[in-house]
Amino acid sequence: GSRAVEREVDSVCPYCGVGCQISYKIRDGEIAYVEGREGPANENRLCVKGRFGFDYISNPQRLTKPLIRRENAPKGLNIDPANPLTHFRETSWDEALGLAAGGLNRIRKDHGGHAIAGFGSAKGSNEEAYLFQKLIRQAFGTNNVDHCTRLCHASSVAALMEGIGSGAVTAPFTDALQADVIIVIGANPTENHPVAATYFKQAAKAGARLIVMDPRGHALRNHASDLVQFRPGSDVALLNAMMHVIVAEELYDRQYVQAHTEGFDKLSAHLARYTPEAMAPVCGIEAGRIRELARAYAQAERAMIFWGMGVSQHTHGTDNARCLISLALMTGHVGRPGTGLHPLRGQNNVQGASDAGLIPMVLPDYAKVSDPATRERFEALWGFAIDPQPGLTVVEIIEAIHREEIRAMYIMGENPAMSDPDVAHAREALAALDHLVVQDIFLTETAMFADIILPASAWPEKTGTVTNTNRQVQMGRPALPPPGDAREDLAIIIDLARHLGLDWDYTHPREVFAEMAQVMPSMANISWERLEREGAVTYPCPAPDEPGSAIVFGDGFPREGGRGLFVPADVTDPAELPDEAFPLVLTTGRQLEHWHTGAMTRRASVLDAIEPGPSASLHPDTLARLGIAPGETIRVETRRGAISLPARADTALQSRMVFIPFAYVEAAANILTNPVLDPYGKIPEFKFCAARVARE
Ligand code: SF4
User: Where is the 4Fe-4S Mo/W bis-MGD-type domain (predicted)?
Assistant: First the structure.
């Protein structure tokens, strides 16, 4: 209606890493609607999730009281999230926190701190991520703390740290407007980073050559100059062949290579055998086309590369990213306007949560726990001893539970019972824990395994900062209070720390941010007051009165010696190839309306109305060959399990592929996926496993 709103609260969208600035319009004590603001990443634009995906916060299934599992109540997914009291009883915060801390301390006493692990969240604030990792390291003396970055860009970050000494993007996606050539590879921004996609479309419309490289020909192809639909898993073959051409035809930037890189001779020798003719049958792209694409990228005045999970979620994800880095380095397409490397970050705060140290092998700002001087620095600042042994990663923690090495967990805002690969195996692990504390806003699939559930705050109910894919740190503000007895997440973490015996005296996120700025060089010149006043500041920021450096590495890289490193990559097969029994390739991902495991978006009425249920997409010819009509229920099976769901016809897919979004518990895609890991990033191969499909 047209009735005036009572209040407007400026914040940031809680969904994807684009980080659109929004304004909540409050009427009658509720969010009436949401509008985009003039933020640096969105300039008033919003996608359907940001605009309509907010009424989950008032869904009747919100948790409003701390819950304790009833004695002998079975653990598992057989609980109706609308009726948790069949398996849990309500309690006070004091009893819940006392039992949560008591159980964790008992495990520590009986089995040592390494028997405990924590999953923090890329959907929380920087301050929450920072305190969560500090709690695990301080209270339990272990580095077993990780979050969903492991399932997202861990391999990209491993390659970027190795190649250019920094895991974040080198330029914001808005710089696409300055580029002559834009490569978008293994990403589906139209659905997963929709507002970023609007900048790519705008650039293409203004004359830039937009090259979409992906086994799936998703919606961005309609705006692209080129769709390069290579075979699933053949990224290295395609990219090595492109680099072969650039070296053979001397299209590389000799001056840049000499001034700013090392390892070029080794790489060029390595590339000799990767001719376009040899690689064409591997990647399914003609040699002439590979040559032409290589020339277009290399000869552009300014070119940018954007990539997503299609690059990272492979057992050779780190190798895929190494090739992209080498492409940019050999052509000098880094460090100037309209050039750069940009892994499109998924969650709204996966950049910030990673920077804040929610990672088992590094402390805040990627300081290695294995390095004695680093530990000494943090021990002096923090006042407690840091375990020198790197902790376990997400998928490794699940394995360690099966080996009875990990016996208790604290999980905040993550849903491994839906997001882990081979999720039946992960659910067995969660059920086997002696003690599980889950902090969340709904009875998620993971919370169904918990002993203690702590009711938390939704994003529009709290104060905190988040860092988007562009390295822009932005301020989120509370529009409403949490419902019932639910509390702000930061207050819960602090209170749990006190119950665990830590002498924490933080009273406001501002104090946590100030401590972060003290221990994290990346936060230099960014203060809470600035963020409140300016809304967004980019790191690194050279001075308190400057907006921050949008484009970095114009004059070298933060590696020893200041040079970027070429790391050659070989073509390797995915871990599980199609065969007679399982002839198709299964790939998974998201869709525009639903966010990750669906905990929020499936409880948002508009989004749920558009996409109410699961589906498996196949090419219409594949469906016809299998005698399946669109809409019919099919059974999709892999060596790990089977699910049933309706078939959907989609010409974007190649003939031997099936695509399933992972948001739907009733047909959970991750029952099917392969948990085998990339050796460097420890990321599972969500984007490729062997499957078969039949009419049910
Ligand atoms: Fe939110 Fe991302 Fe959509 Fe922007 S593009 S409104 S940040 S989901």
Answer: 6-61
